[in-house]
């Protein structure tokens, strides 16, 4: 998971980056601490999956023994309005990667 953080923490123009995990808060906090994100990424939990459900991004991974989760996604917002929404294909790590998002901005 630490390979995910470095570019996000270097964004000089980002006022707030959120890291949201469909797990209890203990896990995203530990990932953030291990990844050395400091106060550059606000780590949040969506343990019940309510946020991803409201976005229509719930993923049923029950067939893999993982229950209901959120798809991997990135939302870039400016002044509270989403300007980019990138949703990963299952098993991919491309459009939610920081270097991909930076090219869109």
Task: Give a description of the structure.
The chain is an alpha+beta fold. It has a single domain, classed as 3-Layer(aba) Sandwich (Glutaredoxin), CATH 3.40.30.10. The protein is built from four helices and six strands. The strands form three sheets. The protein has a two-stranded parallel ribbon. The chain has a two-stranded antiparallel sheet with strand order 3-4. The two termini are 24 Å apart. The model has no long low-confidence stretch (mean pLDDT 77).
Tell me roughly what share of residues is in helical segments.
25-40%
Number of strands: 6
Structural class: alpha+beta
Q: Give the terminus-to-terminus CA distance.
A: 24 Å
Rounded radius of gyration (Å) = 14 Å
What's the CATH C level?
Alpha Beta
Number of domains: 1
Explain briefly what this protein structure is.
The protein is α+β, with helices and mostly antiparallel strands and about 100 residues long. The protein has helices spanning about 5-10, 25-35, 50-55, 100-105; strands at about 15-20, 40-45, 60, 70, 75-80, 80-85.
Map the helices and strands:
Layout: H1 5-9, E1 17-21, H2 26-35, E2 41-45, H3 50-55, E3 58-60, E4 68-70, E5 73-78, E6 81-87, H4 98-104
Parallel strand pairs: 1-2
Antiparallel strand pairs: 3-4, 5-6
Features:
Glutaredoxin, single chain, alpha+beta, two-stranded parallel sheet, two-stranded antiparallel ribbon, 6 strands, 28% strand, 105 residues
């Amino acid at each position: 998971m630490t390979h995910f953080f470095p570019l996000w923490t270097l964004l000089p123009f980002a006022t707030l980056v959120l890291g949201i995990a469909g797990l209890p808060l203990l896990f995203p906090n530990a990932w953030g601490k291990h990844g050395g994100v400091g106060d550059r990424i606000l780590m949040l939990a969506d343990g019940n999956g309510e946020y991803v459900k409201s976005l229509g991004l719930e993923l049923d991974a029950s067939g893999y023994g993982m229950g209901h989760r959120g798809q991997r996604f990135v939302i870039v917002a400016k002044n509270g309005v989403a300007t980019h929404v990138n949703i990963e294909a299952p098993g991919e790590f491309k459009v939610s990667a920081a270097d991909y998002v930076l090219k869109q901005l």
